[in-house]
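Contributing new records

If you add data, match the layout below exactly. Sequence lines come first and carry their own label; structure lines follow with theirs. Keep one chain per record. Anything else will be rejected by the validation script.
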Amino acid sequence: MNLDENKIEAAITKKTRAIVPVHYAGVGCEMDAILDIAKRHNLLVIEDAAQGVNAYYKGKALGALGDMGCYSFHETKNYSMGEGGALLMRDATYVDNATIMREKGTNRTLYKLGKVDKYTWIMPGSSYLPSELNAAYLYGQLCEADAINEDRLHSWQRYYDELRPLAEDKTIELPVVPAHCKHNAHMFYIKCRDLEERSALIRHMLNDRILPASHYIPLHSATAGLKYGVFAGEDEYTTKESERLLRLPMYYGLKEEDLQEVVKSVKTFYKAQ
């Protein structure tokens, strides 16, 4: 589900400024190859590690391998503050501009730090400041980060073990995690044969009072993607994979009996096929 590092160079043009790998489901992209390409083409690497907090690539934290890394603490993530995130930067010269953008385009924080004698609006920005209540809500979870991670990994593995027989007989596909990656059980998904089968499975699970998620519409086919974006190369996997991927319920504290209800619903559907 990640960026194919072998297709990157063919997409680079004279306008390219950065490579933005997305660590889907907390599974790291092939960062060694991506960093090598970026170095040879003098490009920044900005990691979208929104789903990658507490996940690793060859022992290194996702979000901390490139020039910048972006984390999300949205309500759907493993560690949440309702809305918000964090930006990691390898080069400290970017910090002041990032602070200005965070502070509604003003240099108010620089003023508070004594770096300027007055503050004013100086560049585009918005209000990205979380409240103390948001921060406190997140802090409590970060203090228990390992326990939350272990709980999610346990549920992920239970799904995998229970559904493995369906994968072994080629009925569905299960997530793939390379040996050099340590994921964080951000999500558990299965892949159906096609869109028609996935739609039927969703209807079946909803009838069993279970809420699966069909997940993302590919960016290149979204309204803004059609207006602003360019798909480099052939759409070999993106649309096809998005149409057959289905996320199963996954959250901290998922009870075994609830997980078994999900598994039972999936197995019952395919038994009837």
